[in-house]
Amino acid sequence: METIRSIKDVARLAGVSVGTASMALNDKWHKKVKTEVVERIKAIARAHNYQLNPLGRSLQLKRYFRIGLFIDTGFGERPIIGGYSFYDFITHFTDRIGQAGYALDIVQINDATRGRIVSSGAYPGNNDAAVFLEWRGNSVKELLGRAPVPIPYMIVGDDLGDHSLCYVFRNVFDATYAVFKRLLDNGHRRVAIIKSGSAERRFQLKLQAYRQALSDAGLPFDASLVVDLGLPSNQGLQVGRAAAAQLLAERRPPTAFFCDDNLSALGLLWHLESRQIKMPDDVEVVGYGDEAIAALSATPLTFLRIPSREVADFCAANILGWCESKGSFAPLQREFHEALVVGETTRP
To answer: Which residues have C-beta within 8 Å of that of residue 212, sequence separation ≥ 6?
Structure first.
């Protein structure tokens, strides 16, 4: 088999110009080159194990084919157990952009580096676009305002309430309010809420939803039913067990539980089962988080599923679209909702 050393060889074997071969292999052929010609060019490249030189492609198109993922705080503060949605987002986002020929440049940010980056207006590394994961909105806006060359970006985190920014967020309040209303409508008058690994600001939204649901049902708020042991997310099992022991020792124990993440829900379930407390006949339990953690439960858990992959898909599609349109982009906001997955720890 003839050796192919450059795109010129691919073009010669396919009987096309170098420009046509380049458009086909760079997926820039739409409306310019016939489909059958593109298929012939790609078949020749595959048969000879020819791949474009990433550096040459970058220089030719004046792009880096890299997307920066700027993470507020580091991986060490998000252990996989108890913080699975964080890794699920990154994994799925990386797969999506990888299919389009882009690499991910992960940059961990702390208080010191955030200040330097924002004050200088310079993004670390050379990237065609940026994703700011769990950043505070004001610091990102300040950075964007100082950056000499704007690049496409997306902020993933909270509802920033600013239509001049590109960001996605989860409607934590509405989703958790619906859960508490469901439990109260099922006749429960003492519903406990257990904090585990959630970010403080998100837990406060859940707590607000809890208090609102109680108020709408004409029930008083009881602080003894809110348990915060101050343990990190990777100790969720201990949180669930300890919280269950503490709450069941009350003179009037709760008959329903909402756990801040699925890991603490597993610990809670294990303690309830050790006490031969039946679900959902005796108590109802709702978790919050990811399917991978919920699947560890012997009793199928009812939980609010974090839409990590849907958020990753949305971010990747828009970031790639902006990159392929030579960086032109406009402010964009998108709200996502946690969907309730009904298992056997609640009534139908």
So the answer is: 177
Name which residue leads in pLDDT, 58 or 101: 101
pLDDT tens digits, 107-161: 888 777 777 777 776 777 788 899 998 776 567 888 877 776 678 899 998 888 8
Longest CA–CA span in the chain (Å) reads: 85
Q: Which residues pair with 286 in a beta bridge?
A: 258, 302
Beta strand 339-341 with 302-305 is: antiparallel
Full domain range(s) for residue 16:
7-52
Pair of tokens at residue 135? 């950043």
Type of residue numbered 335: E
Beta-carbon contacts of 276 under 8 Å, excluding residues fewer than 6 positions away, are none
Helix (H, G, I), strand (E, B) or coil at 303: strand
pLDDT tens for 23-70 read 787 777 777 888 888 889 888 888 877 766 544 454 444 567 889 998
Domain CATH code at residue 293 = 3.40.50.2300
Whether 226 and 250 have beta carbons less than 8 Å apart is answered as no
| Measured distance CA(226)–CA(321) in Å, rounded | 44
